[in-house]
Design goal:
Shape: elongated
Distance between the termini: 27 Å
Oligomer: single chain
Strand order of the largest sheet: 1-2-6-5-4-3-7-8-9
């Protein structure tokens, strides 16, 4: 890390978090600067308030409140020993930075080196009320993916998410749980021990929700976009027609990330939502024998596409 970068890093982290509380017209220039590169992020501003005032001089009071709030959150986060990762920093996941609306700030507990772009990521998602077949198909996919070196990404929800995390740990793999709420208030409460096990096993808890905040209904959809943005590929195992899983699928499609579902889904035994996906030509349907070859091909193509898009 250069001395200039190290000197400005606290200011940039503060700006990223404060910016997340400000209107889009004020936040957007910072997002563009952080995406373009660290050294130009604050463009020579001596304080974060001064930086934001360039874009909205009439909003001084609101900007000052956002910066004061961010200072308090960062202080409490540091005292708890959690990590902060802002857009444009070395630790920020490369794939996530490519989506149209990346989080300006992430909070993490565990091993942040898991976010390295040298790793491959597979999101595994599905219904909160899985069938025995859905559980078996989740375990089958996770075992194959862990065997290929993938980090498993899911949302710590009841059902398929929890099965994916648990199976990863049972296989000796690494997993990232993307949370809808803050690190100091894990939801659902029933999965708090699972969250602890993920961290203890070398995994990671990740969220854009600051300490002390409560997840709102929209928080779950925003969590879904992070899961999709982190992952090279998405596995939708089981879901009904109105399942929240389809939000994650929609984000994956938008970001150009391949979507997989079990071959059996075509018959409807894994829910109407996944059955509809399985019939779409853009979905990769797989069986146990073809999974590894298909996912390897998909990741190579996906990474090549993301790399090309980042040039424009």
């Amino acid at each position: 890390m250069s001395r200039q970068k190290e000197r400005h890093e606290p200011l940039t982290a503060l700006a990223a978090l404060a910016g997340s509380r400000l209107p889009t017209r004020i936040r957007r220039p910072l997002q563009s600067a952080l995406t373009a590169g660290f050294d130009d992020a604050l463009s020579g501003a001596t304080t974060v308030v001064d930086y934001f005032l360039r874009f909205a001089p009439e909003a001084r009071s609101r900007i000052q409140e956002a910066v004061a709030w961010a200072e308090d959150v960062l202080s409490r986060t540091e005292r708890r020993g959690f990590h902060t990762i802002y857009l444009g920093s070395d630790a920020y996941p490369a794939l996530l930075s490519q989506i149209p609306d990346p989080p300006l700030m992430l909070f993490a507990e565990g091993d942040v080196s898991l976010l390295s772009d040298r790793r491959m990521f597979a999101a595994v998602v599905g219904t909160r009320k899985p069938t025995e077949l859905g559980i078996a198909k989740t375990q089958e996919a996770v075992r194959a993916l862990v065997g290929e070196g993938f980090v498993i990404v899911s949302g710590l929800a009841l059902g398929i998410d929890a099965v994916a995390h648990k199976e990863t740990l049972d296989c000796g793999g690494l997993t990232i749980a993307v949370l809808p709420g803050p690190l100091d208030d894990i939801v659902p409460k029933r999965n708090r021990r699972l969250a602890e096990a993920i961290v203890d096993s070398g995994g990671l808890l990740l969220t854009e929700c600051p300490l002390g905040e409560k997840p709102a209904r929209y928080s779950y959809v925003r969590r879904d976009r992070i899961q999709a943005g982190l992952a090279d590929v998405l596995f939708a195992i089981e879901a009904g027609a109105n399942s929240g899983t389809l939000h994650t699928v929609g984000f994956s499609r938008r970001y150009g990330r391949p979507v997989f579902c079990p071959e059996e889904a075509k018959s409807g035994v894994l829910g109407e939502g996944v059955a509809m996906l399985a019939q779409e030509t853009a979905t990769v349907a797989y069986d146990a024998k073809s999974l590894v070859d298909k996912v390897d091909d998909a990741v190579r193509h996906s990474r090549r596409t993301v790399a090309q898009d980042s040039l424009f």
